[in-house]
TrEMBL record:
Domain DUF306: 37-140
Designated name of the protein: META domain-containing protein
Organism: Flavobacterium soyae
PANTHER family with a match to the protein in the record: DUF306 DOMAIN-CONTAINING PROTEIN, HEAT SHOCK PROTEIN HSLJ
Pfam families: META
InterPro entries, per the entry: DUF306_Meta_HslJ, HslJ-like_sf, Hsp_HslJ-like
Amino acid sequence: MKKILMLFIAVSLVYSCKSSKTANSTVAANENSIEKKLQQTWVLENLNGKVITEKDFSSSPKIEMTSSSFSGSTGCNGIKGSLVSNGAGKLQFPNLTSETKKCDAKKESEFVQLLRTTSGYSIENNKLYLSNQFGLTMSFKKG
C-alpha cells in the first residue's frame, strides 16, 4: 500500500511540474509575441521630428512586421531582423541586418540607427510612433 501511495505521489509531482512548465512557456511566448495591430507594413513619414523628402531617401523606407520578425527597406538597402516585445508599448529590433549597396540615401544610416535603439511604440490614428530612451524618433503610416 505504501508503494502504491509513493508511486501516486511521484506521478502527481511529475505531472504537475510538466503542466507548470507548459503554462510558464505559454506566458513567456505571449509576452514576447508582437501585437496583431503591429503586424503589417509601415511606411516612414517622419524621422527625428522632420518630414522625410525625396532628397533624404531614394524611395520611402518601410518595415513589414510579423509576430516575431521584420523585413523591409531603408529606401535603398534591404533590412531584416527579429522583433521583441517585453510588454505593452515595448518594442525592440534586435539582430537587425542590412544590405550594403552604395546608395544616395542621406538619412539611411540615421534610420537604421534609430531602429536599433528603439525601445517603445504607440499606435494612434493608423500611425505607428517609435521611440527610444530619449523620446519619439520616427512615425510611420500604414503601407
